Amino acid sequence: MHITFRQLKIFESVARLLSFTRASEELHLTQPAVSMQIKQLEQAVGLPLFEQLGKKIFLTDAGREFGRYSSAITAQLEELDQVVDEMKGLKRGRLTIAVASTANYFVPRLLATFCQRHGDAVSVSLDVTNREQLLKSLVENRNDLVIMGQPPKDMALVAERFLENPLVVIAPPGHPLAGEKRILPDRLREETFLVREQGSGTRSAMERYFFANDLRLETPMEMSSNEAIKQGVEAGLGLGLVSLHTLAMELALGRLVVLDVVKFPIMRNWYIVYREGKRLSIVAQSFREFVLQEAAQLLQLPAL
Ligand code: PGA
To answer: What is the span of the domain harbouring residue 261?
Structure first.
């Protein structure tokens, strides 16, 4: 199969943006040039990688499979690029991190301090996603580092704990349970809960708590972001279970309250994670050290 690196880059861009026009803009090429390269790539592979339905394009099964391999190759080549730069003594570096949605409430602050210290020598790419996607990104070696809750035991990973992640039950200030002391889990039985999507670490911790306390999640309302949950709870749709990291503003403004439920907070932890055997770039290595040594002092959680 004769494929060029340039074709892989073009494929990657079209597959990510699902648009020949946007890919050509991103790559500073003309659209016919992009279409031509994809056509040649499809000829080399011997199968269509994209299909057009109406005005939209989609990846075919072969396209998706091709994408898995091409992102692994691209990641390896980028790593090689960085290794060569480092061998040449270049100080500039790129840091690619993927973090759990909830970590988005503090990682930008860590990045700000880290980047200030390094002037403009570091460029950063931050991917915010849920646990399931983070695991995928580790398998595909897509990022330098991942920040997530409890890492899986069945993958060969280096996972270092650096911060606590307390999960709490939130309610609007006028809720009947607000202000009550030591609420028993049983009192939650009648409540409607707004829950995070499947694949979220917060969601699995919540399910474990409900199971351990013999509670059923009654007709839960599923929402795919912490923001939606907080807005929903504020609007009176039900109770929510979120990380204390997400609540600084709402607690300070009195828009939400944390309920004093027995066995809460559920204590999870944050880990900085990469694949065993991965060669961390100089920038990634120094970000990892910075997080392990300083994150806990730099980040203040709201008081309970
Ligand atoms: P989440 O991750 O944002 O996907 O819920 C947080 C966690 O794993 O604790």
So the answer is: 165-268
